[in-house]
Structures are given as structure tokens and as C-alpha cells.
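Backbone-to-sequence.
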């Protein structure tokens, strides 16, 4: 498979999607913020110094998905039609899952990954006064549908 983000001089370019047809596309990504039991309990109860961590992280993830093309140089600006950010508590972490949808010429994988990353960074930011050694890990694409390359699914 050839890299499509390189021009004939081997330099970076934004892929031309002018001739591609619009299709319905989805992507789901996930990641975790690992933390101590004490920090996790503060997140659950809203007891952190900065307030409701997951509410703020949810908005941050949605905003980041919408602005992915401003952050990642070769991403196309997309008209997203749906963004959902969900959280689950684990024994030592908060798991983040983002699902993004659009009808367009290119996929939304980067938008889903950006949403998870921004939500994770927001959780870290809101909890860092309590714990500095939290870890963000396992940020990955879990599923995508639509487009020329077809569907992809990774076991959760």
C-alpha cells in the first residue's frame, strides 16, 4: 500500500478527495486514564478541586472532534453529524469511548481519536492537583465503517 499523504516529490500533502463520493462513515476510539483509587473516587463523587471532571471531559472531547482539522495538519475539515463520548469506571482507570459519524468523502477515525485524547487530557488536567502520576494509555481506533478501505473492527 502506498502512502497517500506524499506528493511526487515525497513531501507532505493533503489528500485530494474532490472526486470521491460521499458515504456514511463512523469511527469509534477508546483510551484510558489510569489513576489511584483515591483519585478515582474523587472523580466519581465530584470531589476534585475543579468540579465535575467527566462533564468537562465530555465537552472537551466533543469540541476536539469538531476541530480535528485545526490540530492535525493533513486532516480535512468535516461536517460531523454525531459525536458521543462515554465513560466507564474500571478498577484503576476511567475508560473513554468516542463515537463519531459523518456523511462525507473521508473518514472520521482521526476525529474519534482526537476526541478520546482531548477527553483524557482534560481528565488529567482536572485531577493533577490530586495526583500527578496518572497515565493515559491504550488510545486506539476500535472500529470504522464506510469508505474505500471498508470496515475495520478491533476487539475491545
Amino acid at each position: 500500500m502506498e502512502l497517500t499523504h506524499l506528493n511526487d516529490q515525497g513531501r507532505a500533502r493533503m489528500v485530494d478527495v474532490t472526486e470521491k463520493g460521499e458515504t456514511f462513515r463512523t469511527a469509534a476510539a477508546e483510551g484510558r486514564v489510569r489513576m489511584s483509587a483515591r483519585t478515582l473516587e474523587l472523580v466519581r463523587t465530584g470531589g476534585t478541586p475543579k468540579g465535575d471532571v467527566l462533564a468537562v471531559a465530555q465537552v472537551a472531547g466533543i469540541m476536539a472532534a469538531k476541530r480535528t482539522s485545526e490540530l492535525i495538519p493533513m486532516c480535512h475539515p468535516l461536517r460531523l453529524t454525531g459525536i458521543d463520548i462515554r465513560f466507564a469506571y474500571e478498577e484503576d482507570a476511567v475508560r473513554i469511548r468516542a463515537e463519531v459519524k459523518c456523511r462525507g468523502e473521508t473518514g472520521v477515525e482521526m476525529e474519534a481519536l482526537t476526541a478520546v485524547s482531548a477527553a483524557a487530557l482534560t481528565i488529567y488536567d482536572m485531577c493533577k492537583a490530586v495526583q500527578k502520576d496518572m497515565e493515559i494509555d491504550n488510545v486506539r481506533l476500535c472500529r470504522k465503517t464506510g469508505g474505500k478501505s471498508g470496515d475495520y473492527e478491533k476487539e475491545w
